Input
Amino acid sequence: MPVPSVEQRVTEQEPNQACAAGETSDPSTSEDRGPTVNDIVVIDPECLELDLNHGRINKLQNLESLTCIERLFLRWNLITKIENLDTLTTLVELELYDNQITKIENLESLVNLEILDLSFNRIKELEGLDNLKNLKKLFLSSNKIQKIQNVNHLQNLNLLELGDNKIREIENLDGLSTLQYLYLGKNKITKIKNLDTLVNLTCLSLQSNRLATIENMNNLKELNELYLSENGIEIIQNLEENKKLETLDLAQNKIKLIGNVSHLELLQEFWLNNNEVSDWNTVENLSSLKNLATVYLEKNPIAEDATYRRKLKIIAPSLTQIDATLCR
Output
């Protein structure tokens, strides 16, 4: 089953891909080789994009000559502190994914920044973003953040990724009316709430939390994708106003009945595997979903039926895929 990753946008890049713009020296050379393996060497001061991924860099320095830089990639390094970026005012995108950073700081001068990726670090607090009012995408997955705060002023924010942290409550998002993508999977959230102002939200991910009820989503009328797998939900409910849903993920919950979905006329993907559905009569409720293309119901009691696939296809003729297998 295609489950979205914690960070949807990640694209793998080859280490030291932009050698024409910058490089780290080879640690295997002799003692008189000049810069150490941790030094950043800028070859082209006028470059727009600099890739220093996998460089074993442990300190941000020697970047002052980059007067035109727009995109700076420093993934998979050993950086412990954000510093020495004050002169890089032209930066639009900064990636510090998978380093050893403990604090968001020293970003005040990066007023043109639109994309900031600090995922897979050791950050404990959401802070230091006061001047980044042009920020559109903020990635902070796999850190140690306990509280959503200090982001309300980011009124241009389109995407917020806070998956795999230690967050217990959805809060302090009132000012993010432009937000379209909110990822809060793999936290410790017990209740869906405080989302009323996010009227432009199209994707909400709350996988692997501690939810027991689907609730407080009446204002999310533009919602297109909803991911609620690996929680403790028992009933499908309170989706009456979410009529634009095309993907609904409720896998690995405690649901016994399929109901309250007949109004979701645009639904294409319905994932309900690893639940407790045992009554075929309740599966009949899928018959009204004329756009339903994919359904996952494996590892429910009904899936043990020898004619399981044939019955599903009769109930929902529009299906092109049942579980991981295409329909013939």
In short: Confidence is low (pLDDT under 50) at residues 5-37. Helices lie at 280-283, 308-315.
